[in-house]
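User: Run a structure prediction on this.
Assistant: Running it now.
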Amino acid sequence: MAAPAAANHLLLTACIEEIAALRFTPAGLPAIDLRLDHASTQDEAGQTRQVKAALKAVAFGAVAERLARQALGSQWRFQGFLANPRNGKHPVLHVTDFQQD
């Protein structure tokens, strides 16, 4: 019997804090690197807490081309998955879609 597939799906509302210039992979695929900032109020163990998080993100293809046209400071709802870069210790959000929050 095959093991069930592990889920790795992230939904995050965040602002675009930094965005690099659109680049192309060696295979010619558009790619863009960005940093997202999140701030919210969350309930944890019956308490309300203020949460802030900064997260590196990357997007490829048509999503990268769409992100390249967005303004710094604009807020979006990002969908994607987490993965560690080859030589990195911290996970990066791979954005697969985004829409206005």
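The chain has a mean pLDDT of 95.
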